Amino acid sequence: MPATPIPVTVLSGFLGSGKTTLLRHMLRAEHGLRLAVIENEYSDTPIDSRLLGDAPVKVMTLANGCVCCSILGELEKALLLLLEKRDAGELQFDRLVIECTGLADPAPVAQTFLATPELCERYRLDGIITLVDAVNAGRHLQEPIAQAQVGFADRILLSKTDLVDAATLEALSARLQRINRQAPIHVVEHGAVDLGELFGVHGFELNGNATPRLRPVAAGKSSDRIATLVLTTTTPIDLQRLSGFMETLLHDHGNALLRYKGVLDIAGESRRMVFQGVLQLYGFDWDEEWGVDEARESVIVFIGDSLPNEAIQESFAALTA
Ligand SMILES: Nc1nc2c(ncn2[C@@H]2O[C@H](COP(=O)(O)OP(=O)(O)OP(=O)(O)O)[C@@H](O)[C@H]2O)c(=O)[nH]1
Predict the structure, then answer these.
(1) pTM (2 d.p.)
(2) CobW C-terminal domain: which residues (predicted)?
(3) Check: CATH 3.30.1220.10 for 226-319?
(4) 59: CA distance to ligand 1 center in Å?
(5) Does domain 6-197 sit in CATH 3.40.50.300?
(6) Which ranges in the chain are annotated with CATH 3.40.50.300?
(7) What is the pLDDT of residues 271-314, one digit of tens each?
């Protein structure tokens, strides 16, 4: 029987946003999970300098049974090494957390799990968690990469909220929610947060989880590069025309579509169609049937980078015209 894939959480967030602080909390928390952590960066924190030597990958088992792995360079090598050691009974862990560097785009890390066959079988990308530093967010979010980190997230965590007033926090939450209307926002206090909110996200699975859940946003227009675009219609959509629409969109803007999810009412079909994707990688499937009295509605949510919203809305409207 194939082994159950190991769930993987990618931890992203701009420089100094509290990733290491959260990791420490994760490694200390009494959750009963055996975590493996990959620190995908070179930094001067004590844990790293102890781990890094000449070897590209160093693995250390912590006192509580968690595994900490530090790499210089290739993530794939570290992932395969962890599997090898786990299969040989040298390491035990049932969940993996990968800390990205503050300046990194989390997409390549996520794509490693979606596009590398040996890794897809043994690991399951569970979710991307992005930390946002409430004190420095104004400055950080001027950087497109910091906005992209928010755009890719399944969960957004706000750190250092103890240092800002309620109005600042509210304005920041509204801004983040406009960038990414799908991800719930949680406060993390010096790394402390309910881990139940962060693990078991199933953010990249189609069945039961592709239906977009839109968070309410305050009125106002987004001035950020990364923003959420929502397309809806109550008219059933022709499957072929939909395929054409998606193909064109992916061809023209594939690299700008950070995350997207949809549930669709397809003409002549009693089941709902669900799909989701990251950049050019996407999958779709037929899901449950629509209920007899259920109001059918197609909803697609794109979190995109500088998308021509009006043009996309027009071509979508033309599908059912
Ligand atoms: N006041 C306050 N400080 C915090 C909080 N979370 C983290 N910090 C502090 O913020 C600083 C940066 O935290 P780190 O956990 O090192 O951040 P990081 O994202 O790992 O940083 P890099 O790896 O350099 O990108 C540290 O001094 C933490 O103690 C918080 O909720 N409140």
Answers:
(1) 0.90
(2) 226-320
(3) yes
(4) 24
(5) yes
(6) 6-197
(7) 999 999 999 888 889 999 999 999 999 999 999 999 999 999 99
